[in-house]
Amino acid sequence: MLKGNFFHGLSYLGEGFRLIRQPGLRLFVIIPLIINILLFGLLFYFLAEAFGLMIATAMGWLPDWAWLQAMDWVFWILYGVVILLMLAYGFVIVANLIGSPFYGYLSELTEKHLTGQDLDAGGGWVQILKDVPRALLREVQKILYYLPRAVLLLIIGLIPVVNLVAAVLWFLFNSWMMALQYVDYPADNHRVSFGDLRRTLGSQRLSAFGFGLPVALGAMVPVLNLFVVPAAVCGATAYWVRERRPEAE
Length: 249
Description:
Blueprint: H1 6-19, H2 23-61, H3 66-69, H4 72-115, H5 124-156, H6 166-189, H7 194-203, H8 205-218, H9 224-243
Helix pairs in contact: 1-8, 1-9, 2-4, 4-5, 4-6, 4-9, 5-6, 6-7, 6-8, 6-9, 8-9
């Protein structure tokens, strides 16, 4: 039987959005946000240049009819759709790889804001730099956990009849992964292993799904997803402070 409180879980992303406006937390929201905007801006610029070259080449193969040559706008609409899909499905992974050291410290500051207690892992910018390899390794652990399960769901989606439930399974899995992804930041600050984190969230699975659901939905909305990531870090920290079981310590 599933345990936890789904509706309590739903409230934490909203709390995260309130927390990122706190003066002491804003800096560690703004820095990774700027980095993400710059990197994605460069990526989309080069994609647009490459796509423009592809359109010009493709149009050169077509008959020189004015109405047909004027159809290049269709290709640009296609480009916009591709960009939106990239944002929807690739943004969270890339953003977390880029910002993981900052998000770990943002989670630490958020916990201090909520509890009034310092963590032993403090150290400011020096600690952020020291934590870069460990933070990246932790992100790789999450990707390795995600990939085989995602492949399994893709296979299920190819099986007739069974594939009718694939969309529901994907939605549940993405909600679960978002909970794992972001509650991992405060868990890692307390040196809780990824395996122990999975068991802790599993013991309150309804709460975890409640938190992960709005994060998964928000991550699919362009522009909003830029702010969902730091808000999810702060919301996950609030989740950790209030929902974790004693054995997670």
